[in-house]
Amino acid sequence: MAELSLSNIVKRFGGFEIIHGANLEVKDGEFVVFVGPSGCGKSTLLRMIAGLEDITSGELQIGGRVVNDVEPADRGIAMVFQSYALYPHLTVEENLSFGLRMNGNPKADTERRVRHVAEILQITELMKRRPKQLSGGQRQRVAIGRAIVREPQVFLFDEPLSNLDAELRVQMRVEISRLHKKLGTTMIYVTHDQTEAMTLADRIVVLRAGNIEQIGAPLDLYDDPANQFVAGFVGSPKMNFLNAVVVETQPGRAVIALESDANTRLTLPVADPIEAGAKVTLGIRPEHFVDAGTGDADLTVTIDVAEHLGNTSYIYATIGPEQLIIERPESRVAGNRDTLTVGLPANRSFLFDGAGKRLR
Ligand code: ATP
């Protein structure tokens, strides 16, 4: 097991800077997930930790040792890829034992470790098969098994579940969580799927365009996002963003009106001074609307589509040119209606300035 430390890690490809000075401390045994949209640099960051990419500048430590110039095989890490990267001509058992055999590990110990891993991952009955005789989920399990037998100090996962169908992805997600509990090993996991991030992580690192936007526990990011980007990235369905304008300011507070419905006004506390007339964005999560008349303002929307899921409903709606999603308990949206009026609670509302900075 090991802690991990990134100080001012920069990556340049040619003259182009991709990672702009990343700082992160990962505790021993922690499960850290890197999330962010395509191209934000999360795989590059992981590959630098693995030693598959050079670090342009900055310092990387694993288990208290600077490893910038240490070969991948000597870093005490094992990596699981999206593509599984299994040897097609070898059986499951041979795939699992391959690395240990190549390192000259004693035969009896290799056999013991392979047996143990097969039990943990419940693939014992597949040992004589070749990868092409396995389902996607089974292949991914073998790929994870191959990482476990090496007994690494740190596991690195690069979007390991993205080739699996939705149901299997959920199942494997739970298995990876169980595995982390069982092994207690430090894990770093890359995904663009915010649900995977929320469910797996002790802490999430949100990346955008080569910068770390926020680091925090999943629910801290959900409750207290640093800016509009993080607010929109964490949570499913996504937070609604509605254009608004500041119509009046009071000490420590601003009265805002929605652009799409000037009658919808909300008074919100703001940390920084803001001028009347400033354009702002109101953020409200689909699950935080309340019954009409019980919030701090009412909002009437036109219903485009209502999805009834039994316990809850998702209302895809518009207000003027803007779209939003409202989640309501099933019982509150019964009947065929064209419009819906809901309450906006000020204490669950976020406010961002034109640059996406959090005002509240
Ligand atoms: P995805 O989810 O699409 O895999 P990502 O967040 O993992 O995205 P990276 O693969 O780390 O993103 O890429 C970050 C940026 O670095 C991208 O703009 C990409 O084009 C660029 N990049 C990655 N590898 C190279 C390379 N070998 N040479 C030049 N540019 C690269």
Describe this structure in words.
The longest helix is centred in the middle third of the chain and has 18 residues, at 166-183. By secondary structure, the protein is of the alpha+beta class. The chain is elongated. It has helices spanning 42-50, 92-102, 107-121, 136-148, 166-183, 194-200, 218-223, 228-233; strands at residues 4-13, 16-26, 31-35, 57-62, 65-66, 77-81, 154-158, 186-191, 203-208, 211-216, 240-250, 253-258, 265-269, 279-284, 290-291, 297-308, 312-319, 322-329, 339-344, 350-352. The strands form four sheets. Strands 6-7-8-3-9-10 form a six-stranded mixed beta sheet, sandwiched between helices. The protein has a five-stranded antiparallel beta sheet with strand order 13-12-11-14-20. Strands 15-19-16-17-18 form a five-stranded antiparallel beta sheet, with no helix packed on it. It has two domains: 4-233, P-loop containing nucleotide triphosphate hydrolases (Rossmann fold, 3-Layer(aba) Sandwich); 240-352, OB fold (Dihydrolipoamide Acetyltransferase, E2P) (Beta Barrel), CATH 2.40.50.140. Helices cover 24% and strands 36% of the residues. The model has no long low-confidence stretch (mean pLDDT 92). The structure holds adenosine-5'-triphosphate.
SSE blueprint and pairings:
Layout: E1 4-13, E2 16-26, E3 31-35, H1 42-50, E4 57-62, E5 65-66, E6 77-81, H2 92-102, H3 107-121, H4 136-148, E7 154-158, H5 166-183, E8 186-191, H6 194-200, E9 203-208, E10 211-216, H7 218-223, H8 228-233, E11 240-250, E12 253-258, E13 265-269, E14 279-284, E15 290-291, E16 297-308, E17 312-319, E18 322-329, E19 339-344, E20 350-352
Parallel strand pairs: 3-8, 3-9, 6-7, 7-8
Antiparallel strand pairs: 1-2, 1-4, 4-5, 9-10, 11-12, 11-14, 12-13, 14-20, 15-19, 16-17, 16-19, 17-18
Helix pairs in contact: 2-3, 2-4, 3-4
The structure holds adenosine-5'-triphosphate.
